[in-house]
Amino acid sequence: MCKIENSLYGEIDFPVDTYCFDSKHLLVAGWAFHESGNDVSVEILIDKKSQTIAKWGLPRKDILDKYCTEESYISGFFATCLIKKLEYGSHRLQVLVKYEEQCKCIFQGSFIKSNDVASNPPGFEFYSSMIDHTIPAGASVGSVRSSATNFLKIIKKDGKLKKNNSVLEIGCGFGRFALPVAQFLNKEGNMVAADILPYTVHYLSENVAKRYSNFKAVLLNINNDLYFDNHDDDIGKLPFDDNSFDLIYLQSVFTHVRPNLVKFYLNEFNRILKPGGRSLITYFILDKKSREAIQNGTTANNYKFKHEGEEFYYESLALPEISIAYDISKLKEFYKNAGLDIIHNSFSQSYMRGRWQGNSKAIISQDCIIAKSTTG
Known about the structure:
Layout: E1 8-12, E2 25-34, E3 41-46, E4 49-53, E5 55-59, H1 61-67, E6 75-82, E7 89-99, E8 102-113, H2 124-139, H3 147-157, E9 166-170, H4 178-184, E10 190-195, H5 198-207, E11 215-219, E12 245-250, H6 259-272, E13 273-286, H7 288-296, E14 307-308, E15 313-314, E16 324-327, H8 328-338, E17 340-342, E18 367-373
Parallel strand pairs: 9-10, 9-12, 10-11, 12-13, 13-16
Antiparallel strand pairs: 1-2, 2-6, 3-4, 3-7, 5-6, 7-8, 13-18, 14-15, 15-16, 17-18
C-alpha cells in the first residue's frame, strides 16, 4: 500500500470557467478524501464568501486505485452555486476540503460569468468518460467503505426492502445510493431516481438506465433557492400515481427544505406509497440530546442552528437552505398530519441519530426518521 504523505487530498477535475453553464449557475466538481476514511466536507467560496457545501456523487475507483488506499472512501463531489446576483466578468473561486479541525484549499482560481449559455449542460462529457471506472466502484456492496453502503443497510433492514419492491429516491444526485438499490432489486422490482437538477437526471438516463432495465431517472420541478429560483411558484404533485411505491427514501434533502415543502411532500409520500409502505428520510433533528451537543460544541462542522424561522432553524442568514434543522416535536406533528406513522427503533427512540450530533459510532451522518403509510 502506498504511503499518503498528507491527510487531506482533493482536486477539481476540469477547468471551472467552462462550467458556468448559464448566467445563474456554476457547477464545481471533483474528488476529495481523508486518509482515515472518515467523511470530509467540501465548501465552495466565491469572492471569499461561502456559497454551499458540496454534495457527494459516485465513488471514484480511479482515485482509489491511484492512491492504493482501500481504507479510505474516495468519492466525487459536485456543487451547484447560484451566481445570478454576481456581476458579469471574472470572480475568484476557492474550494476547501475540511475534516474536523483540518482544512485544505484544493483550488484557487477564477471563473467567468458571461451572457453565453452553454450548448449542453455541464459535466456530460466528463462524467461519461468516468463511467467505466465510476460505476463499478459502487457496484459491489462493501467494495468501498462508504455512506452509500451504510445507508443501503438501513434501507434493507429498517425499510424492509425486498428484491421485487418499487423504490423511489428523491434527491438522487449522480446515483450514489440509487445504484446499489437497483443492483439489489430483481427484474420484478424497479428503482426510480428523481432530482431537480437536469444534468444529473440526464447523466443517469444515459449511463445507468441503459445498463439496468429496472432503473429510471425522473426530473422534478421543485423550487429550492439553494439550486434554482426559476421553477413554477405553485407546489405541484409528484409525477407518480397513487400507491406506486413500497419504499421512498431521501438522503440529505429535507436538510435543505423549508417547512411548507416538507409538509406538502410528506402528504405526497403517503399518497404514492402503497398501504404499509415505508419512508426513510434524513434530517438535522433538534431535541434535548442534540441541543446539548450544540451547547458543548461537539457537533460535526460546528453546527449551531442559532437562527430561527417559522417552524425551523438554520445556519446561514444569507441562504437558509444551506442547512435546515427541525425540532423533533414539530416533525412528529408533520408526520401525524400527513398520515405517516413514525416507527420507533429498538431503543424506543423516534429516530436514528446521526454523526452530526457528535456520535462517532453512528452509521449515518444525519438523523433518520422511518415511517409507514397508514392509508396508501
